[in-house]
Amino acid sequence: MEKQGENSSRLVLVLYPFQGHINPMLQLGTIFHAKGYSITIIHPEFNSPDPSNHPLFTFISIPDKLLESNVSLSPADFMNLVSALNRNCEAPFKKCLTQILDHKHPHERISGVIYDGLMYFAQTVADALGLPGVCMRPTAAAMLLFSVIPQTEQESVFETQIPELQPLELKQMFKSMSTNPTEAMTEVRAAALNATKRSSGMISNTMEFLEHAALSMIREYSPAPVFTIGPFHKLAPSSSSSLLQEDAHCISWLDKQALKSVIYVSFGSMASLSKQDIVEIAWGLASSEQPFLWVIRPGLVHGSQGTELLPDGFQETVGERGFIVKWAPQQEVLAHEAVGGFWTHCGWNSTLESVSEGVPMLCSPCFGDQFLNMKYICYVWKIGLRLETELERGKIQGAIKTLMVNIQGEEIRNKAAEFKRKTQVCVTQGGSSWSSLDEFTKQILSV
Ligand code: UDP
């Protein structure tokens, strides 16, 4: 049961309602709960998490008026959605937080508000109510460079960027982000930057060794201290926060496969593919001759369940060698000894989950920060291979073989295994993430 009452401390966490943001925030809640804090999760009505999976937390839903705001949920309309959520949620959040303060036990303390960086209205409310506001960033820390360096300086700073950051091509990214920005984009960037400046600190789901150069640069520019306490899921394993039902049958199937033989294929919760991509992937996997576990979530191909698009003869060809699910318990899958490769869209959570299990990656980024993550994986950390944007069965087959079997992939596999060992060091006592968490608790939560 939740610890409440006398001399306890509570943290209020504000969710951005998409899978790749819900997971890390609830993991963070688990980390602080294990440290003795009571946790209240405040979330918009849209994509509400299931409270029964997290009986130790208190969940409060606030009206988001998304239907009335008439925004689409497609990645292309992302900035309008963020803007609408911030406009619509600020007043209900203030009301809700005021009630929490009014009704708390006299000896209970609200230690702070930790909000997803896209829910920046929470900083305004925290400021108004005199509470520390902390921004949680569920992306690579390198993405923070676009928030902490003034826009007018970004191009020249990125031009002279330090060698370790060159493969990320930050200048090109800045240019494409600043070409013809929409009104919502300009508004969201300015407001997020402003909130970040006023925050008491930032929590980044990353590790010092992964992003040393980017973190040094961020610390040069950011007035708020940055705490790197990732991968969150390794500091305090939490229960599932999947919005779709996880199919656990794949674990029994994995149990029957040979060590490091399986390629796990998943493109996360938002990316989409074409019908032809499904056909190419199917035949690429079939001809690789490796066992595979493939997540085809409803909507992966717009307006379809996906599995009906599999080509004739595919199931007969692969038989028991392939296993297809709508949604997998991904962390468990990546930690399974049968998994030897991950074909991913390079979402940051997927990237970190793979890094921490030492699984080398085949990269097919689709949009946004996934391209930056791919560059980290393939050209900075060298623990993965990039696939051409145009998916083609022969290239898929060759890339899987290189990643998992052929001698050309050996360095990548060894490097990935080394990253698993380094991650373990980070999250154990004295490691950088462990120490950063300790520092955060002392510096931010106890004032
Ligand atoms: N995930 C999962 N099962 C799946 C596919 C994905 O549990 O079948 C989880 C995955 O572990 C990760 C999250 O969904 O935590 C996806 O986040 P990510 O940042 O990788 O990508 P996004 O979905 O935001 O594009």
UniProtKB/TrEMBL annotation:
<dbReference type="InterPro" id="IPR002213">
    <property type="entry name" value="UDP_glucos_trans"/>
</dbReference>
<keyword id="KW-0328">Glycosyltransferase</keyword>
<keyword id="KW-0808">Transferase</keyword>
<comment type="similarity">
    <text>Belongs to the UDP-glycosyltransferase family.</text>
</comment>
<protein>
    <recommendedName>
        <fullName>UDP-glucose iridoid glucosyltransferase-like</fullName>
    </recommendedName>
</protein>
<dbReference type="Pfam" id="PF00201">
    <property type="entry name" value="UDPGT"/>
</dbReference>
